Amino acid sequence: MTMRISRVVVASPDAAATAAAWERLGVALPVEVRAAADGEPAGLVEIGLAVPDVEATARLLARRGLQVEADLVTIEGSRWRLIEDAEDPPAADGLALDQLVVAAADATRAVADYGARLGLDLRLDRDTDFGFRGLFFRCGDAVVEVTVSSGAALRSDTFAGLAWRCRDLAAERARLLASRTQMSEIRVGRKPGTVVATVRAPDLQVPTLLIGPAD
Question: pTM for this structure?
Answer without folding.
Answer: 0.93
